[in-house]
Specification:
- It is a single chain.
- With about 300 residues, the chain is α/β, with parallel strands linked by helices.
- The chain has helices spanning about 5-15, 40-50, 75-90, 105-125, 145-155, 165-175, 180-190, 235-245, 250-270, 285; strands at about 25-30, 55-60, 95-100, 130, 135, 140, 160, 195-200, 205-215, 215-225, 295-300.
- Strand 8 and strand 9 (about 205-215) form a beta hairpin.
- The chain has 10 helices and 11 strands.
- The strands form 2 sheets. It has a 9-stranded mixed sheet with strand order 2-1-3-4-7-8-9-10-11, with helices on both faces.
- The mean pLDDT is about 90.
- Helix 6 packs across helix 7 (about 180-190).
- The radius of gyration is 20 Å and the shape is globular.
């Protein structure tokens, strides 16, 4: 066989076996120089899952604020607006089929991200928007209240999926979330198609739960709690769930795999004493998680007339 025929044969086989191209995802959140939170964690996970990623940082930090004080660099309102306008005018934005938003540095950014989401949805009627309302934890807001209010009022109504932690859900809904049935009821009041509540109450002792409240009922995925877990788990599970959902997996399968991946990566990182999630060293759990997690369907109380 001639070299030319051999090359053509190989190229034909590559084309036949080539995976179906996946849609692009736009990630809008904070960026850190060191660590795996915000855009760094989400982008890595999405790209490792085979997605092309557009990234729009809202603020630049040296590391997660929980690891110490640092300089905060954020574009001015005019600069951020100009960035969004240029992205909205780009013809290639039609390739973007999903948006993830996270940390916002000021209320003006929230309004611009809302414009961006609307533009993506106008280009693709089936585009998905996942809003991770990064506003607080452990009983208190860690952003200024006008930012939290803007996320609640402007971004949540556009969202197909939201991923609040238990405190964020309570703040956004105005209802208690200490018990599982309370968290489910609080999520239903927000009117978002799918709510994934991280750090939700678990039934098993020394466990933690991701609770999905969706159109087909509620589902709880539990695993053992890992003490000293690094920051960035919320960014990771949101990205992994979205990636698996966009790949055609069911809500249950997507959340189980995303939870197992996150749990396994956390456990491996903590085992070697790392303060950060070790993505590059432990990539296999992102694709093929081996950790065992428990899933159960949650019986919801019937609505009162």
């Amino acid at each position: 066989m001639s070299l030319e025929r051999f090359v053509k044969k190989v190229e034909h086989k590559i084309r036949e076996n080539a995976p179906k191209p996946k849609p692009s995802v736009l990630v809008v959140s904070s960026q850190v120089v060191s660590g795996c939170v915000g855009t760094r964690g989400a982008v890595f996970a999405l790209e490792r899952m085979g997605f092309n990623v557009w990234m729009l940082p809202t603020i630049l930090l040296p590391w997660h604020p929980g690891q110490g004080a640092g300089v905060r660099i954020s574009p001015s309102e005019v600069e951020f607006r100009s960035l969004v306008e240029q992205i909205c005018a780009n013809e290639d934005l039609s390739d973007v089929k999903a948006v993830i938003s996270g940390y916002m540095a000021n209320p003006a950014q929230v309004s611009e991200v809302a414009k961006l989401v609307k533009e993506v949805k106008s280009r693709n009627s089936d585009a998905v928007y996942l809003c991770d309302p990064v506003i607080g934890d452990k009983g208190d807001l860690y952003v200024r209240e006008p930012i939290a209010e803007a996320i609640r009022d402007e971004l949540l109504p556009l969202a197909d999926i939201i991923t609040p932690n238990r405190f964020e859900l309570a703040w956004l809904s105005g209802f208690g979330t200490e018990m599982e049935n309370e968290a489910v009821a609080a999520a239903r009041t927000l009117g978002v198609e799918r709510t994934i509540v991280t750090s939700s109450p678990a039934m098993r002792r020394n466990s933690i739960c991701n609770l999905l409240v969706g159109p087909n009922g509620s589902l709880a995925i539990e695993h053992a709690e890992v003490q000293g877990a690094p920051n960035g788990t919320g960014d990771l599970i949101a990205a992994l769930y979205l990636a698996r959902s966009l790949s055609g997996q069911s809500d249950e399968e997507a959340l189980k795999k995303a939870t197992a991946s996150t749990f396994e990566l956390v456990a491996r990182s903590v085992k070697v004493g790392s303060d950060n999630l070790l993505y590059s060293e432990h990539q296999d759990p992102l694709i093929h998680p081996m950790a065992l997690v428990n899933s159960r369907h949650v019986v919801e109380a019937p609505e009162r007339a």
